[in-house]
Write a structure and sequence with these properties.
By secondary structure, the chain is an alpha+beta fold. It folds into two domains: 58 residues, no CATH class; 114 residues. It contains three helices and nine strands; from the N terminus they run ααβββββαββββ.
């Protein structure tokens, strides 16, 4: 995805988050107008709801919301994290994607890293300090994962790339 498109996605997300969800006719009109503007700017399909935003363009899907469903099909053998999923970025083809989450406890973050190790993800980076936890590795199939967790805000991201996936959803 081009850097300009990422900027538009961020701008669109800010616009969506600034809309209030009172459900009036004026809000629906504003929502549809914003969708139209965003679709022209992004060049893809945009769906804005009270819960978040979905954007589809060139086989890449971007979704924001409060408690999104774990995208099991694009995250390989990774377990669902104990937290609220707020952003999903994945491709239509292949397996691979990025998930942002919040409201995860420090204990659950540490347990998630241990689960990644149990699943055979190793030989990557491992950092743990007073501010964050970060872990990455590859399994025997060549699938790769990167888990990050910021301790104070209790949020982070999980990036997964299947060995057979050529999609550039992870920025690799």
């Amino acid at each position: 995805m081009k850097r300009a498109n990422i900027g538009v996605l961020i701008l669109t997300t800010v616009i969506v988050l600034s809309l209030n969800g009172c459900g009036s006719v004026q809000d629906k009109i504003a929502e549809k107008a914003t969708e139209g503007i965003a679709e022209k700017a992004v060049g893809g399909n945009v769906d804005i709801t009270d819960d978040g935003i979905k954007i589809q363009k060139d086989g890449v899907n971007y979704e924001t919301g409060k408690e999104l469903e774990w995208p099991k099909d694009s995250m390989g053998d990774l377990p669902e994290p104990k937290g609220n999923i707020s952003v999903i970025l994945n491709a239509d083809t292949g397996k691979g994607g990025t998930v942002a989450y919040n409201e995860m406890s420090l204990e659950d973050a540490k347990a998630y890293v241990e689960k990644l190790k149990e699943l055979g993800y190793k030989d990557g980076m491992s950092i743990s300090d007073t501010d964050m936890i970060s872990y990455s590795g590859k399994n025997s199939r060549g699938d790769s994962v990167m888990f990050t967790y910021s301790i104070s805000p209790k949020e982070g991201s999980i990036m997964f790339k299947s060995a057979g996936d050529d999609a550039n959803v992870l920025g690799q």
